[in-house]
């Protein structure tokens, strides 16, 4: 599936440009859209006893009139219901006039078991919570558990943000056009869409390219050209060296999980940097991963200068406080050649009172690329104003955070958003709830660093790590604990390396 995601505004602009450039006018695009939806209804529900098509006042309703006409023509039993008449002169009004069926008022909607609902109430044009007859129709259909095929978006779901502010359909299938919208991937929208089918309605790729889209669905296509594939003549340090900071003796596991994530990503060497009092406990649990003492900033400086690590991770189990801030700022200021610094967990929390110091350090000339990996709680500590701004979507919030931090932000969760300071953003959707287990984020931080160390640019490394982490977790399934993740990476890595070689 194509990876660009269009906001409703960008989609309207694509429609407009496509209509100007041809070959289809607005009515032609609408016929193509309706035809695609009718095909999916017939494919998924060939035995439907009755299809109820619910039309709203805009062009989403217009698509509905086309669908109703085509399904009736194919011999299906179709009932048509409309909330309002389409605006005179609109494409929807033409579609309604061409439709062989007469609509009944939506207020009278009734539907029995065995029926299928086609939701053509609101699509990209949804501008406020659904009320009145449309709200009642959604409630009736939901209460009866009837399958819903949504046109473009389930009515009530915002295409821009995935937010739901009133009643909303829960579709079994959503057929959208040209490209998906952020609301198909962001929660709770994604959860209301069911299966999403993307239909080509004749908007040329060149029209989409002109829009310079900055939002993407996270998928290998997005970053595979940058994915590291070792050459036959490589050696371990050329495959990248990752340094991972350990916490004290009672909290070393998190750093080791990160270290395993980094090692399994294909980095050639990984070192755990440990306080003296945790060396013994770390040593007992590390084999291929190296261990080095680092209590003081001077020891950190010596490590950076001697071993020139290509990426570092600070945060998992590290402890919140001055030491985390000092070490982070020392790495960002070191100019030792490290390509990236992943700041996770306690590393993020340590900057809650002075985020500007972190962001300035990341902005300095020659600083390693900063990647922040906050879950919602950590995000709110570093960006309290963005977190509390109700009107912002997770996408907008993450994008603003990345610009402010001068770093890549991985806003974790079931709909992880990866945002770059240059405005690019990707939404991830291949995860599974099994990933919500202690230590899972530590492995992710290590994976990001491992890919950074192998030379992937920061945004691509972050997107690839999030996708691999999610893929590994969802393939593993129930019973997953964080220790399972590193070991389960190789089959996913093998597929990616094979695809990157092609
Ligand atoms: N030429 C085009 O622009 C094409 C548009 N297409 C369809 O057109 C849709 C977008 O059409 P529109 O921009 O007309 O938007 P919609 O059909 O989604 O709805 C817009 C209308 O509903 C009103 N409205 C919005 N939210 C409401 C609410 N909660 N309660 C009551 N009224 C509300 C708006 O004021 C406006 O009049 C897409 O989702 C897609 O299905 C497709 O036919 C492809 C071609
Ligand atoms: N419901 C979910 N679906 C998919 N992924 C999830 C879900 N919940 C959490 N995750 C992922 O699991 C990881 C949890 O990380 P984090 O919250 O830092 O936990 P920890 O600190 O215990 O490692 C993140 O990558 C997050 O995106
Ligand atoms: K709809």
UniProtKB/TrEMBL annotation:
Keywords: ATP-binding, Isomerase, Kinase, Lyase, Metal-binding, Multifunctional enzyme, NAD, NADP, Nucleotide-binding, Potassium, Transferase. InterPro entries: Carbohydrate_kinase_pred_CS, CARKD, Nnr, Ribokinase-like, YjeF_N_dom, YjeF_N_dom_sf. Residues 11-209 form the YjeF N-terminal domain. It catalyses: (6R)-NADHX = (6S)-NADHX; (6S)-NADHX + ADP = AMP + phosphate + NADH + H(+); (6S)-NADPHX + ADP = AMP + phosphate + NADPH + H(+); (6R)-NADPHX = (6S)-NADPHX. K(+) binds at residues 60, 119, 155. PANTHER family: ATP-DEPENDENT (S)-NAD(P)H-HYDRATE DEHYDRATASE, ATP-DEPENDENT (S)-NAD(P)H-HYDRATE DEHYDRATASE FAMILY MEMBER. This is Bifunctional NAD(P)H-hydrate repair enzyme. The gene is nnrE.
């Amino acid at each position: 599936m194509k990876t660009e995601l269009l906001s409703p505004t960008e989609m309207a602009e694509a429609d407009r440009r496509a209509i100007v450039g041809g070959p289809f006018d607005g009515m032609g695009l609408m016929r193509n859209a309706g035809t695609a939806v009718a095909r999916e209804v017939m494919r998924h529900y060939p035995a439907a006893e009755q299809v109820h098509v619910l039309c709203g006042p805009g062009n989403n309703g217009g698509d509905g009139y086309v669908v109703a006409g085509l399904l009736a023509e194919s011999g299906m039993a179709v009932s048509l219901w409309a909330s309002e008449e389409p605006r005179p002169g609109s494409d929807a009004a033409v579609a309604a006039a061409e439709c062989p069926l007469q609509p009944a008022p939506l207020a009278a909607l009734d539907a029995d078991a065995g029926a299928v609902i086609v939701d053509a109430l609101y699509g990209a044009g949804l501008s406020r919570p659904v009320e009145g007859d449309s709200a009642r129709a959604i409630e009736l259909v939901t209460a009866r558990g009837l399958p819903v095929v949504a046109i473009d978006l389930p009515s009530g779901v915002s295409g821009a943000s995935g937010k739901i502010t009133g009643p909303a359909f829960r579709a079994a299938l959503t057929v959208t056009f040209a490209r998906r919208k952020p609301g198909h991937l962001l929660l709770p929208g994604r959860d209301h869409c069911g299966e999403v089918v993307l239909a080509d309605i004749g908007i040329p790729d060149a029209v989409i390219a002109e829009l310079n889209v900055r939002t993407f669905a996270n998928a290998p296509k997005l970053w595979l050209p940058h994915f590291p594939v070792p050459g036959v003549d490589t050696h371990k340090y050329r495959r990248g060296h990752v340094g991972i900071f350990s916490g004290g003796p009672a909290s070393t596991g998190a750093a080791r999980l990160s270290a395993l994530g980094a090692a399994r990503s294909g980095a050639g060497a990984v070192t755990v940097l440990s306080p003296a009092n945790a060396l013994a406990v770390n040593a007992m649990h590390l084999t291929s991963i190296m261990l080095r003492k680092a209590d003081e900033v001077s020891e950190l400086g010596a490590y950076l200068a001697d071993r020139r690590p290509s990426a570092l991770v600070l945060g998992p189990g590290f402890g919140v406080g001055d030491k985390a801030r000092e070490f982070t700022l020392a790495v960002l200021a070191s100019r030792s050649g490290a390509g990236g610094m992943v700041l996770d967990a306690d590393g993020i929390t340590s900057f809650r009172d002075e985020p500007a110091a972190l962001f300035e350090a990341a902005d300095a000339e020659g600083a390693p690329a900063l990647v922040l990996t906050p879950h919602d709680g950590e995000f709110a500590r570093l960006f309290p104003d963005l977190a509390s701004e109700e009107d912002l979507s997770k996408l907008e919030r993450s994008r603003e955070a990345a610009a402010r931090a001068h770093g890549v932000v991985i806003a974790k969760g079931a709909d992880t958003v990866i945002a770059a300071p240059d405005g690019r953003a990707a939404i991830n959707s291949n995860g599974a709830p099994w990933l919500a287990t202690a230590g899972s984020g530590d492995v992710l931080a290590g994976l990001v660093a491992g890919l950074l160390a192998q030379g992937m640019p920061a945004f691509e490394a972050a997107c690839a790590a999030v996708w691999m982490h999610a893929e590994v977790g969802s393939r593993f399934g129930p019973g997953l604990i964080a220790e399972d993740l590193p070991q389960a990476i190789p089959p996913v890595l093998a597929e990616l390396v094979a695809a990157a070689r092609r």
